[in-house]
């Protein structure tokens, strides 16, 4: 049994967490293990944050999805009890939620496959008619054109949804009206909440990076970039 497993089985989750963080691999397994440890420490916010990252890196793992669902449920109960004004995914618009559920390489792969199939159908139809107009007037021509238009429309929605990339909050902290500690607090936000990053980070005092975020459907604020886990 590894040192990490021994610490975890002994219930020494804090020591196991410190040991895990000494050699970060930044893959799905690493973030999954972080999420599980935070969950066992009864910190559903941090558990949700790291399991969200694990799910983004490995979106087809049922174990990751099951534990993420549990962590989100526990976090939602915590938010309801505290009457928080910021909910789990309140800043995401419908296009953004759609984009979060799919992978860019997967949708490009589907577009490529459909393009190949449609091209083969068009070539076959052209070889039979030897007429470009008749080729595109056949049912296979209309179907192919419609399929391509539909897939590129889906890709356009995906690109629109990823223009403000998602991130999750890693620790409870205040949101400010501008980039820096001198700006007044707008509200506070809990770990595990998903936000949307607006534009590039801004450097403050030469070494502090601040990120503008959307934390509700139409409300913006600023937060230190170190407090975010980009997805």
Descriptors for this entry?
two-stranded antiparallel ribbon, 16% strand, 231 residues, SH3 type barrels, Serine Threonine Protein Phosphatase 5, Tetratricopeptide repeat, alpha+beta, 8 strands, 3 domains
Descriptive report:
- The protein is α+β, with helices and mostly antiparallel strands and 231 residues long.
- It folds into three domains: 3-82, Serine Threonine Protein Phosphatase 5, Tetratricopeptide repeat (Alpha Horseshoe); 104-161; 166-230, Roll (SH3 type barrels), CATH 2.30.30.
- It contains nine helices and eight strands.
- Strands 1, 4, 5, 6, 7 and 8 form a six-stranded antiparallel β-sheet that branches.
- Helix 4 (44-57) packs antiparallel against helix 5 (62-82).
- The longest helix has 26 residues, at 104-129.
- It starts with a helix and ends with a strand.
Q: In terms of structural class, how would the helical and strand content be classed?
A: alpha+beta
Query: Unreliable segments (pLDDT under 50, ≥5 consecutive)?
Result: none
Number of domains: 3
Coarse morphology: elongated
- The CATH homology group name of the largest domain: Tetratricopeptide repeat domain
Counted beta strands: 8
Task: Return the CATH class of the largest domain.
Answer: Mainly Alpha
Average pLDDT, all residues: 79
CATH names the topology of the largest domain as Serine Threonine Protein Phosphatase 5, Tetratricopeptide repeat
Strand content: 15-25%
What is the correct CATH architecture of the largest domain?
Alpha Horseshoe
Distance between the termini: 32 Å
Largest sheet descriptor: 6 strands, antiparallel
In quaternary terms, these chains amount to: single chain
- Which radius of gyration do the C-alpha atoms yield? 23 Å
Helix-strand pattern: HHHHHHHHHEEEEEEEE
